Amino acid sequence: MHSFAQLIYTLSGSTKTNEKLQALVNYFAHANEKDKVWVIALFSGRRPRRTVSGTQLAVWCAELVNLPMWLFQECYHTVGDLSETIALLIPEKTNGSTQHPAQPLHYYVEKFQQLEKAAEAEKKLFILQSWLELSSRERFVFNKLLSGTFRVGVSQKLMVNALARTVQLDANVIAHRISGNWDPSTTLFSALLSEQSTQTDLSKPYPFYLAYALEGSLTELGEPADWQAEWKWDGIRGQVIKRNDQLFVWSRGEDLITEKFPEYTILQSKLPNGVVIDGEILPYKNGQVLNFNVLQTRIGRKNITKKHLQEAPVGLFAYDLLELNGEDIRHLALAERRAALEELIGMLQLPWLQLSPIVTFSNWDELTTIREQSRAINSEGLMLKRRSSAYLVGRRRGDWWKWKIDPLTIDAVMVYAQKGAGRRSNLYTDYTFAVKDGDKLVPFTKAYSGLTDKEFAQVDAFVKKNSLEKFGPVRTVKPELVFEIAFEGIAASNRHKSGVALRFPRISRWRIDKPPDEINTLDDLKKMLELYGK
């Protein structure tokens, strides 16, 4: 655990890509073989499931250090992170300690798995013993893993590049090897990444090719004829795989979601073997793409009922063909892959399985006009793909671009504030906003991003000077600061007092120029709902 904790602190403390890359290279060159497998798993999103609740951890720590719960809670609100609070409160081991040194990383994460269904007393004993044998840094990382909240600010691409310097494999091959359904508890590093490895996982998806946001002028892309334009859909990016008479559906987040979409079962008999389709899972009915909010009613449910299938039907809009007749065809030009995809989809004749339509245009000005129609068809904008492009790995510049429409915006006043987490744990950075409804203010959304560090510090000072009431960590503030809130979509909601829910709300700018009595109204939100909340 010591080496892993040191790696995490090095990665989180650096903003330089080369320093992070070198730290990963050094780790993979010297770490325990089983630990290396777990690092690959953790850094590619395979976090251990939560073993105990945050409340249990807080109570056990308070008992261990003999603190009343109210004082523990005050410490927690000041630090802003439960794992860090516990790590700081438990004293460090003394130099003369006779306690055992920390175990390797794989020992702890595999122990979490073993304890998942154990009695509370057994879990408590293991956790308390581990807290006492770990250093503060190790304890912090241990807590993050234990609570299921482990995240690290390192892209999978960076990890793959580090592995490519450690093993004799191309980065693209590594990215494919570490994708899919493999168990870090039983997988050997040599089996995963050796040159001689012969993996037989039929379900394994390909790494997704991702686009960068288009920021420059369209004319910089060159000739319009060299590009294919498609609508950018707002759904779940996924891959549908048929191999050896078995069907698999993967999300971009590398979750195996085959059982979530029983509509796709027919593809097990319809699709030829050795086919992989890249596409978007969308709410789709009567030939129309529905609002993403419809799909959200199915996301996260363990069991999909007949009612869900009727109220939230889904389609699959196919973007690309990655494998055909069992052969990886990602190296072919997009134009060739698209032709093969069109032939395949045309042969299947399934009404919910659609080709993502190509948007025809003759010049960039015409495409700019077409893009303005995006929101009317529940699209986020356009995708631009070079017709000669191969299907690459990860996010690359040059051949694929996303050109999203401008977000919706509304002016609102801040009414509540709460302290943030991590490096912002001592600042009020999480805000609730309201619009006018006659003489009243109606809260309608929360946001915690979009301001500079300097602006967050200024708002924090305002909150501390202008608090009206305190409810636990939340403070009611004088409704004087106006902000422009940007969001991607709007939907009706019975769970919110305002009657609406926003998609991806964030602070667009601080409207220092606008007084609170000039903010938007609840009627303005409802008009937006009528226009864009299909």
TrEMBL record:
Keywords: ATP-binding, Cell cycle, Cell division, DNA damage, DNA recombination, DNA repair, DNA replication, Ligase, Magnesium, Metal-binding, Nucleotide-binding. One of its GO terms (biological process) is DNA recombination. Its EC number is 6.5.1.1. One of its GO terms (molecular function) is DNA ligase (ATP) activity. It catalyses: ATP + (deoxyribonucleotide)n-3'-hydroxyl + 5'-phospho-(deoxyribonucleotide)m = (deoxyribonucleotide)n+m + AMP + diphosphate. Pfam families: DNA_ligase_A_C, DNA_ligase_A_M, DNA_ligase_A_N. Coiled coil: none annotated. Residues 307-437 form the ATP-dependent DNA ligase family profile domain. It is an enzyme of class 6 (ligase). InterPro entries: ATP-dep_DNA_ligase, ATP_dep_DNA_lig_pp_1105_fam, DNA_ligase_ATP-dep_C, DNA_ligase_ATP-dep_cent, DNA_ligase_ATP-dep_CS, DNA_ligase_ATP-dep_N, DNA_ligase_N_sf, NA-bd_OB-fold. It comes from the Bacteria. This is DNA ligase (ATP). It comes from Niastella vici. The lineage of its organism: Bacteria, Pseudomonadati, Bacteroidota, Chitinophagia, Chitinophagales.
